[in-house]
Known about the structure:
Elements lengths: L4 E4 L3 H12 L4 E4 L13 E3 L5 H7 L3 H7 L7 E4 L5 E5 L9 E3 H10 L6 E2 L4 E8 L2 E6 L4 E4 L2 E3 L17 E12 L2 H4 L1 H7 L3 E6 L2 E7 L5 E8 L2 H5 L6 H10 L6 H8 L6 E7 L12 E3 L2 H4 L7 H18 L4 H16 L4 E2 L2 E2 L10 H9 L4
Parallel strand pairs: 1-2, 1-11, 2-7, 4-13, 11-17
Antiparallel strand pairs: 3-6, 4-5, 8-9, 9-10, 12-15, 12-16, 13-14, 14-15, 18-19
Helix pairs in contact: 1-4, 1-11, 2-11, 6-9, 11-12
Amino acid sequence: xxxxxxxxxxxxxxxxxxxxxxxxxxxxxxxxxxxxxxxxxxxxxxxxxxxxxxxxxxxxxxxxxxxxxxxxxxxxxxxxxxxxxxxxxxxxxxxxxxxxxxxxxxxxxxxxxxxxxxxxxxxxxxxxxxxxxxxxxxxxxxxxxxxxxxxxxxxxxxxxxxxxxxxxxxxxxxxxxxxxxxxxxxxxxxxxxxxxxxxxxxxxxxxxxxxxxxxxxxxxxxxxxxxxxxxxxxxxxxxxxxxxxxxxxxxxxxxxxxxxxxxxxxxxxxxxxxxxxxxxxxxxxxxxxxxxxxxxxxxxxxxxxxxxxxxxxxxxxxxxxxxxxxxxxxxxxxxxxxxxxxxxxxxxxxxxxxxxxxxxxxxxxxxxxxxxxxxx
Length: 376
């Protein structure tokens, strides 16, 4: 007997789980708070790694569909000094293990791979409670309810399912992104376009950095990172876009104008993205009938791994449930043990451990030494 699975959250992790369960013939329903697949922009580009995200897509049987939406050339990366000097460039020769796709396209592929009606839209969770014997009741904001024999919280940082397992809550980690977009960059923002190049660019510095990448066409998408308390950002009126951009840019006084243009010349108002995280190596004791994946389980400050790990969680959970058709608890125990072990591993890039933004080593030259293993 296969217990039907109830998933809360139609992000990449929840949808990957739903797809793998579908392939194994396990009944599944996904409940998502958003009103429809197109009710919200799905964010920018994602690099999908060959050691986690792509493994999940292979398990989901969607590698051909994934390859069809990869944007060629976007694995190129530049390290840039604060004065705009390009210190190092890694071209995209087609052999890299981190191809770039639009998040929305990846989500569409997953949605299209599921039978109609698998995802129930407009189902915002109001509360969840245990009924005993591994069963749980989910109550939605519209007054509806569902009782689940196997509940999976794939509902992100502020998960409504997590309290069934853990009292942990995300805390601000001391850094935030300010997100900007520049459109028609090659003609309207030529200097910024030149310094970013054809893929991604990072200009690191202790306590602050500018990361940007070229999306489809000539759109530049930038994440301006600052290590500041929440109160510092709260003093900025982000409803006044020019003033907010000027205030953020002031923190980069002395930087090359083609870099600060990614802040001051944006075509959309800057958006503040505070970073929160769950405690390092967050885990819980096995609770019958419920588990978590992705940010609901192991939210961390942005490090390039979040979406990839959520998808891998979903694929591994689906495979574990298929491997233990008569013992759901054994499946959940095996899945959680593997997931918790991953959480203890350091974040690396090409086998080099990544420095935090506040590190004195968060410079272009130090990053170059990590990537090449050579002193410069």
